[in-house]
């Protein structure tokens, strides 16, 4: 009997509005892949990302072009050749991990060679807005140990980070500029972050214009996000970045993400585990990267008005490993 692949678009309303330097949205629209093989069933979720030219229809079409290979038994290693990195490959790769775990009767983290998964503390995201709006959001979230602050506006980011720090004096602050800063604002913005005690800044410059990071003295740790997707070329980033943000949708699945994490460790780069805004089904495979991570940013379900009913358990900012009912 051949496998059976089915696809669906699932939509999850966001609690309020999620805003970054590139725009705002009120809904997380994801593609869910289900691979059935006899009595066993594996699921994977991906979030098409417009920054990389991805759309719901485009991701669905990309997966459909490989339907025959998947249903004939292609495995995770085969996917590395069949599909490029990105959301489509992620959905299939994670579904295959889940399927393998169900067929073996062994948790996915054990299949990956990970002895044990433990609860971890995730960052909680504060959307980009006017300083007073961000300060109000930070005040409401000041009990959380780690806050991730979205910046990257054309002006006013020093005032934003100062306002957030005043509102959340005890939280560890991470900043994500989403490629929004430019060479003429970089030093001022980094200085403001350093003065606010920010622990790390993600992707301050556009991915295709980040060379000046290698030539400047960096007052705090800089993390590559849009500048890194897979292992390819990772070594060339060592002089520009101190850390890498690994996201399954960028890497094209957990298989590549684990290899990327190993290579980052070999090169001496710190690891951050990140996510797009999706449901717990998208976060669950990323939990396998958390034992290697200095920072974890898997707060997608916390930003939703409603998660999948069998979603991850969050206790404040503490996120627990998935149950087999959800994934793995």
Automatic annotation (TrEMBL):
UniProt enzyme class: isomerase
Similarity comment text for this entry: Belongs to the mandelate racemase/muconate lactonizing enzyme family.
Cofactor requirements of the protein: Mg(2+)
Protein name: Dipeptide epimerase
Binding residues annotated for Mg(2+), in chain numbering: 176, 202, 225
EC identifiers of the protein: 5.1.1.-
Catalytic center residues: 150, 247
NCBIfam families: racemase_DgcA
GO MF term set: metal ion binding; racemase and epimerase activity, acting on amino acids and derivatives
Bound cofactor: record note: Binds 1 Mg(2+) ion per subunit.
This protein's UniProt keywords: Isomerase, Magnesium, Metal-binding
Residue intervals of the Mandelate racemase/muconate lactonizing enzyme C-terminal domain: 131-223
Database matches in InterPro entries: DgoD-like, Dipeptide_epimerase, Enolase-like_C_sf, Enolase-like_N, Enolase_C-like, Mandelate_racemase_C, Mandelate_racemase_N_dom
């Amino acid at each position: 009997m051949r496998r059976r692949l089915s696809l669906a678009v699932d939509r999850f309303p966001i609690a309020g509005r999620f805003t970054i330097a590139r725009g705002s949205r009120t809904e997380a629209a994801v593609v869910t892949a289900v691979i059935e093989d006899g009595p066993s069933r594996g699921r994977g979720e991906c979030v098409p990302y417009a920054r990389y030219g991805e759309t719901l229809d485009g991701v669905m079409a990309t997966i459909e072009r490989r339907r025959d290979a998947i249903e004939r038994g292609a495995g995770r290693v085969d996917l590395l050749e069949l599909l490029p990195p990105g959301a489509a490959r992620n959905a299939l790769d994670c579904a295959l991990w889940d399927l393998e775990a169900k067929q073996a009767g062994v948790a996915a983290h054990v299949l990956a060679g990970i002895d044990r998964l433990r609860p971890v503390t995730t960052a909680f995201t504060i959307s980009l807005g006017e300083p007073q709006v961000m300060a109000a959001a930070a005040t409401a979230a000041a009990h959380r140990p780690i806050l991730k602050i979205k910046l990257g506006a054309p002006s006013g980011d020093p005032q934003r980070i100062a306002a957030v720090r005043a509102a959340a004096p005890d939280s560890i602050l991470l900043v994500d500029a989403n490629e929004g800063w430019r060479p003429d604002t970089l030093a001022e913005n980094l200085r403001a972050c350093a003065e606010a005690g920010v622990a790390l800044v993600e992707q301050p410059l556009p991915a295709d214009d980040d060379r000046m990071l290698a030539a400047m003295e960096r007052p705090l740790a800089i993390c590559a996000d849009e500048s890194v997707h897979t292992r390819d070329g990772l070594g060339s980033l060592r002089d520009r970045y101190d850390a890498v943000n690994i996201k399954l949708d960028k890497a094209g699945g957990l298989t590549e993400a684990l290899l990327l994490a190993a290579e980052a460790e070999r090169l001496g780069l710190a690891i951050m585990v990140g996510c797009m805004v999706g449901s717990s089904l998208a976060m669950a495979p990323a939990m396998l990267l958390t034992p290697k991570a200095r920072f974890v940013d898997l707060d997608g379900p916390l930003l939703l008005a409603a998660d999948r009913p069998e979603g991850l358990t969050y206790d404040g900012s503490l996120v627990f490993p998935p149950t087999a009912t959800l994934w793995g």
